[in-house]
Amino acid sequence: MTEEQIQTSGERRERPLILLADDDLDIRTLVRLAIEPLDYDIIEASDGEMALEHILVEAPDLVVLDVMMPGLTGWEVCKYIKNREGYQHTLILMLTAVGEIVNEMTAPLYGADAHLDKPFDMDEIVEVIQQLLKTQETQET
Questions:
Q1: What is the rounded distance in angstroms from the CA atom of residue 53 to the CA atom of residue 39?
Q2: Would you say 32 and 82 are in contact if contact means Cβ atoms under 8 Å apart?
Q3: Which of 42, 64, 119, 139 lies in the 20 to 30 Å Cα band around 15?
Q4: How far, in Å, CA of 94 to CA of 116, rounded?
Q5: CA 89: distance to chain centroid?
Q6: Are strands 41-45 and 17-21 parallel, antiparallel or unpaired?
């Protein structure tokens, strides 16, 4: 992928774009079904490298990012994006089964905007996504 292919758009989207990045198809499907009624555009990735490519090319507004994935871990993807010029605004919700205490310590270290421990409630993930996007919208106006 060349630098010319990697573009971030300054244009405002009609609907927020959300990337679901998890190697577990069942989790991606459940999260997709939970947030589809909210009128968001949704793309998916099944590993860390695919997630990073989607982020660099599509510049989603929010990434729901699993920690333990093949290739790059969610932590590596998060740290890379939050340190890359032009992408620091990308919201990241980390999903992990590493344990609440570890998650509370590591998610902020890597720059995540929020985190949820697996297993999580679908209403809870919807609420966190809506709150993150609402906060971002408020900051942009």
A1: 24
A2: no
A3: 119
A4: 6
A5: 11
A6: parallel
Tokens 């939050």, residue?
A: 82
Tens digit of pLDDT at every position of the chain (141 positions): 333 333 444 456 789 999 999 999 999 999 999 999 998 999 999 999 999 999 999 999 999 999 899 999 999 999 999 999 999 899 999 988 765 665 565 555 567 899 898 888 999 999 999 999 998 777 776
CATH 3.40.50.2300 at 17-140, yes or no = yes
Spell out the domain ranges in the chain: 17-140
d(CA 131, CA 61): 13
**Sheet with 114-117: strands ordered across:** 41-45, 17-21, 62-66, 91-96, 114-117
pTM for this predicted structure: 0.85
